[in-house]
Amino acid sequence: MMGTITNKATELLATDASLLGDAVLDGLTVIEGTAGLWDGARRLSAAARFRTVADILAVEPWHGMDAHVWQVDEHGDLRYTGFHRDGVNTCVFRAADGAKLGPLVLSALGL
After folding, report:
1. pTM for this structure?
2. Of 43, 16, 33, which is closest to residue 109 (Cα–Cα)?
3. N or C: which end of the chain has fewer CB within 10 A?
4. Where are the alpha helices (DSSP H) in 1-111?
């Protein structure tokens, strides 16, 4: 069941981020990521303020990707995966208070 929901959410996230304009975020969003580079992986983290989930989706966290996927994973986290010739870059987005953004995304999508 979660796989079906995840696949549907991924499809909707990829095709119409505007559906998430009503999913308002309060406070900071923490971004944790890993860059897969030709000389190894590098971890990074940051915090930013986004007004809505759609604002997160409007800005690719990694530039120059050959392809990318947004999804709500099996843990309820909002996750970005970008693919490029040197490897794979990933980011997980969470509210700074530890809340998971995935349930908010699924709710805004009506799932």
Report:
1. 0.74
2. 16
3. N
4. 2-15, 53-58, 102-108
